[in-house]
């Protein structure tokens, strides 16, 4: 009898730590431009991959889009990095007009292990603080 593997996803919550003023301003600008773009301002300056994510979200939401709501900034999946010298986890946030974006340390509420693959990252702002939701996927044995 062979083992059967299934892919499971879960979301790991994190908080962005120690945002210096310059990075805070850049992240705020990208976040605000994301909101403007979603509401129809196609001239809002967004990093190209982030603009593509906005288009995907708008298509997915369709008629359910609510222009009064603030939506999480959705980043492509290659922005998350682990195991650097300074902190276990970093996020590289693409910013329009900033080569290489900005790197920010994050603190997760649980470990992200090497057998997990990052699928999506969402950033939200709540009460002046920044939070990250990292959707990860890993293979586990299927239960019989």
Task: Explain briefly what this protein structure is.
By secondary structure, the chain is an alpha+beta fold.
Task: Give an overview in words.
The protein is α+β, with helices and mostly antiparallel strands and 144 residues long. The protein has one domain. Helix content is 22%, strand content 41%. It has helices spanning 21-38, 48-61; strands at 5-16, 73-75, 80-82, 89-95, 98-108, 117-126, 129-141. Strands 2-6-7-1-5-4-3 form a seven-stranded antiparallel β-sheet. β3 and β4 form a beta hairpin. The chain is globular. The mean pLDDT is 85.
Topology:
Blueprint: E1 5-16, H1 21-38, H2 48-61, E2 73-75, E3 80-82, E4 89-95, E5 98-108, E6 117-126, E7 129-141
Sheet with most strands: 7 strands, antiparallel
Number of domains: 1
List unreliable stretches of 5+ residues: none
How many strands appear in the DSSP assignment? 7
Give, in spatial order, the strands making up the sheet with the most strands: 2-6-7-1-5-4-3
- Going by helix content, strand content and strand pairing, the class is alpha+beta
Order of helices and strands: EHHEEEEEE
Beta-strand percentage range: 35-45%
Helix content: 10-25%
- As a whole number of angstroms, the C-alpha radius of gyration is 17 Å
Average residue pLDDT: 85
Alpha-carbon distance between the termini?
A: 11 Å
